[in-house]
Amino acid sequence: MNVGQAAGSDDAQPVDVGSVELLFQLGMAFQLMLEKFVRRMDAAGYADLRPVHGLVFQSLLAGASTSSEIGSALGVTKQAAGQFVNDLEEAGYVCRTEHPDGGRRRLVRLTLKGHQHLQTAGALLRELEQELESIFADGSSDRLRADLAQLIMRLADGPLPPFRPNW
Amino acid sequence: MNVGQAAGSDDAQPVDVGSVELLFQLGMAFQLMLEKFVRRMDAAGYADLRPVHGLVFQSLLAGASTSSEIGSALGVTKQAAGQFVNDLEEAGYVCRTEHPDGGRRRLVRLTLKGHQHLQTAGALLRELEQELESIFADGSSDRLRADLAQLIMRLADGPLPPFRPNW
DNA sequence: TCTCCTTAGACAAGTTACTTTACTCATGGA
DNA sequence: TCCATGAGTAAAGTAACTTGTCTAAGGAGA
């Protein structure tokens, strides 16, 4: 990396991660951590789902109850959200029932299998974070997390947009 | 977020960014910062290029000299890399010349316009980082960058893979 | 020299993950 | 009764690739 600066050497393959752009560091850290997480989820028997399906579960926990609501929570069209719900219903992670408010609305709810997925995802994520604690100076990621929170609040400058890493 | 834990409240829309998963923090910070960077590049007259084209320039600086080499540096097929080079050649950012090693090889090189893009990208990136320095406790992102570097080295556990955020 | 193998590059078709466009219902208010 | 609105669905379009297949150009052996 080192965008737009003189290249140190032509074969700087083992990059000095500390002197690289912040944007690159954030992206690479995210990519690496997500990959580990996904690998472990696959190994735990959830290879049929992508991260975006996990975000659907999240949006349901956060209060979304129809395909359209899921779509706007995730920042995708209702058609795309409807497709996610189709996938999840077919695989038994959610079920569609009648909606109390009537209309064409259909209530989307997590099944037991869906709740179990959430439990596993949460456990694996905390496990992964735990394994990383030891690498920080004071044995905790608290400082890093606080810095990231600051950065995010400054960059967003208001409510957070939907999280959409184009998975 | 708070995957797999009891949801604090049903309408926790203004999320407490500090208590959220590290993976989510990394992804959100990256998404927000990349978006700002891309917006500024667009405003600077580079709306015709995507971030992946910037990575092509990077790979050329790092020593890649043919489509195939660019492809393996970026972790995509040679066909995809060839397409990137087509785009860039058509827009005047790179040129293809004869390769000294012969064969079907074609040497890919940055034009002046390509170098200018790199200059601008670097300047905007440093400008963006500069603007963020003030939000950190000691007026510098050094601590954050050091923590991220640690995290990346631990997660990669060896040479870094290609950076491929699926843009 | 001839054959075999490897590699670069190009072309075309296929795939994925969506969006866009265009509807069909169901309800509810004027 | 007649829209107007919003949910849901279906089908086509699109972007950014991969896969499959081919040709061209060496280089290594026999």
In terms of structural class, how would the helical and strand content of chain A be classed?
mainly alpha
Main sheet: strands, sense, barrel of chain A: 2 strands, antiparallel
Radius of gyration of chain A: 20 Å
Would you report the number of β strands of chain A? 2
Mean pLDDT of chain A: 90
Q: Can you tell me the CATH superfamily of the domain at 45-155 in chain A?
A: Winged helix-like DNA-binding domain superfamily/Winged helix DNA-binding domain
In which range does the helix fraction of chain A lie? 55-70%
**Spatial ordering of strands, largest sheet of chain A:** 1-2
Strand content of chain A: 5-15%
Low-confidence stretches of chain A: 4-13
CATH architecture of the domain at 45-155 in chain A: Orthogonal Bundle
The number of helical runs of chain A is 6
Largest inter-chain contact set: A-B, 71 and 71 residues
Protein name (chains A, B): MarR family winged helix-turn-helix transcriptional regulator
Organism (chains A, B): Jatrophihabitans lederbergiae
Pfam families (chains A, B): MarR_2
Domain HTH marR-type (chains A, B): 19-157
